[in-house]
Amino acid sequence: MQFAFPPLTPMVRKILMALGIAFVVQTAMQVMGLVELVWWLALSPPGLKHFALWQFLSYGLLHGSIASPQMGNLWHLGMNCLGLYFFGGDVERALGSKGFLRFFIACVLGGGLLYGVVGLLVGSTVPVIGASGGVLGVVLAFAILFPKRQLIMFPIPIPIRAWVLAAVYLVLNLYGALVDRGGGVAYLAHLGGMGAAYLYLQMIRGGGGSRGGGPKSWFRKRRSFDVHNGGRRGPWDVH
Asked: Of 7, 83, 131, 187, which residue is least crowded by CB atoms under 10 Å?
């Protein structure tokens, strides 16, 4: 067993920076009393009736309570950033940096679509914020690509396989969506992000079956970065 911090890959670094900058801007807006602008960026089912389509992406940049800047905001942001850091690097190696960005955006969109559509159907007016749908999509992708990877989730000192962790997250969010619908956690956005991750991987590997050969054989074809001479951009250009 080896304990080590995963490397910070190029696109994961950029997404973490984007989330950090967005959090600073969000907090500044709330301190200045511009809470209405923050609501304008959150994903609100009633707002979708007015074709506020930007909310399907902008909600993923916001974290914590949109009512007031508190330490809870940092906890929400920190948990998402940790999840993206620990699981995103290996997924980026498999998809490539640009491919990982497309994948992450697809997961955020998937989470927003499921939450927004169900919200419209049931008449919900509760807005949702946070990149958790995208992060849980990354966790599912990690489990598909590395199903037997052993993980230790603090504070439980028992190693579990990656596919077990993803299954636990899936069951907990299914249970939360069915039972604890008013608990303040956007379970539907989480499920939408995981569903989008699965569909995205199925799509890019040819739909599975006789064409794709399964996630493991597909991953072996893209097991590392492609490194090229960077020319004017620097000594190396990593994709």
From this structure: 7
Q: What is the CA radius of gyration of the chain?
A: 18
Mark out the alpha helices in 70-96 (DSSP H runs).
71-95
Examine residue 2 and state whether it is found in any structural domain, yes or no: no
What is the domain extent for residue 155? Answer: 10-221
pLDDT tens digits, one per residue of 11-59: 999 999 999 999 988 888 888 888 777 788 889 888 777 778 899 999 9
Question: Residue 143 maps to which CATH number?
Answer: 1.20.1540.10
pTM (predicted TM-score): 0.81
- For residue 179, being part of any structural domain is answered with yes
How many angstroms separate the CA atoms of 209 and 49, rounded?
Answer: 39
CA 58 – CA 108 distance, rounded (Å): 9
Is the residue at 4 inside a domain?
no
214-225 pLDDT per residue, tens:
444 444 444 444
CA 132/CA 11 separation, integer angstroms: 17
- Residue 231, in any domain of the structure: no
* Number of domains observed in the structure of the chain: 1
Instruction: Read off the amino acid at residue 190.
Output: H
CB atoms within 10 A of CB 114: 23
